[in-house]
Write a structure and sequence with these properties.
The protein is of the alpha/beta class. The protein folds into two domains: 292 residues, 3-Layer(aba) Sandwich (Rossmann fold); 85 residues, GMP Synthetase, Chain A, domain 3. It contains twelve helices and 26 strands. The strands form eight sheets. A five-stranded mixed β-sheet has the order 9-10-11-12-13, with no helix packed on it. Strands 14, 15, 16, 17 and 18 form a five-stranded antiparallel β-sheet that branches. A four-stranded mixed β-sheet has the order 2-1-8-7. Helix 1 packs across helix 6, helix 2 packs across helix 3 and helix 9 crosses helix 10. The longest helix is centred in the N-terminal third of the chain and has 16 residues. The radius of gyration is 22 Å and the shape is globular. The C terminus is likely disordered.
Amino acid sequence: MSDERNAILTQLHRVRTNYGSRPCIDDSGAILTYDQFWAAVDAKLARSSGSCSPWWYVRTGLGAASYIDYVAGVLSGHPIVPLSHQWPTKRQKAVVSELEALGDDAFDTLVPKDCAYVLHTSGSTGRPKRVPITYANLYSFLNGVLSHGEVTAEDRLSATFDLAFDLAGYDLYATLLTGACLVLPKGNEFVLVSEYVARRQLTQWFSVPTVVTRAAALGRLRPESLNSLHRSLFCGEELTWTQVSLWAAAACHSDIINLYGPTELTLACTTYQLPRMLSDWPVNDVRSVPIGNPLPGAEVTIGSKRDSHELRVRGEQRFAGYLDISDNHGAFEGGAPNAKSSWYLTGDRVDRFKQNLTYLGRLDSQVKIGGMRVELGEVESACRRLPGVFAATARVENERLCVEIVGHPDKDIRETLASILPVYMLPHSIIEIDQPSVSASGKTIPQVRISK
């Protein structure tokens, strides 16, 4: 057991002992105390003691059972593999079968020692990338965001992320390491932000910025409606000045913190806290709030061989490479993936504005849909695999995923894609076009046939 994993387990045990009668999880009004939560974890661990798999699979959801299962995996010592309830059954089975096929030898070659979990992100090759994160990576992140009493036993935290999304790790550990209470929403209650915060008496918020836009559009983000919040965090996608202005008006007493970091950098590797006074906000020429500066366990630099503005990161939070070695190609500079000198290439373009890193955009076709990482190439690949489809082009318009296909699908394309792709990767609109014609300049001119 690594020193970092031992430190996390020691603190979990300390809180378990000291806060046994306090609420741990509020699951739509059904309260689990710390004693009850840990008793359920122990029972789950005992029932699973005969498993011969080297992996700990967790089928996720926002119910307390998923968190119990996940923490049992932490105690088991097996790498946790979350299987999102948003994934179609075919995708879940494929993830399990591919990992099982690696065999025990993978733990000597591919899987890093003391691996905490393996997450699956969208991949440009048409299959998800497998990202292993160690307890050392996780400990560095937690030490950077929880070392100054940012969360206490008096806090009630939101829960807006599926456990298959790395950001859910913050909610889980920020709760269990401090004695706070994690407040699970009922269904999509978290979209109704004002009601969720007020009805459930939340004191801390964490979500993707898209939630702000949706809540405002629904009229559920009224000025001064989030007065119980004293800390608000956002991550997972670009946080715009429009979004943060709406939030600041609603959460008048809250610090607002913008976190940044891909899954490969363990949840988040940079942070920026907005000044309380609006007159002190560093409004710039781009539309987004700064992503700030690196956490203590991370080192950043701007500029790579492929782009003068690409953000490179290394340090204690950086993973040591994908499980599929071929995915490491083009993802690192300065050494092998597991070398301390090696930089991870984020694919994000940044610049500095008043000493703070500011996001400028992507180098590639990766996009964020509701905070979830989507490679347009994976969506296009799924479409091209369908009978009767000869070509596919995906793009984002007004935060909605659109796909143009060439051909005549043999079956209902939406139903078929739903059996292949997670919910968040499904196109909002699909346009079928005939064989495109070509202009004098050689550019294709799509001929729209039918819109669905």
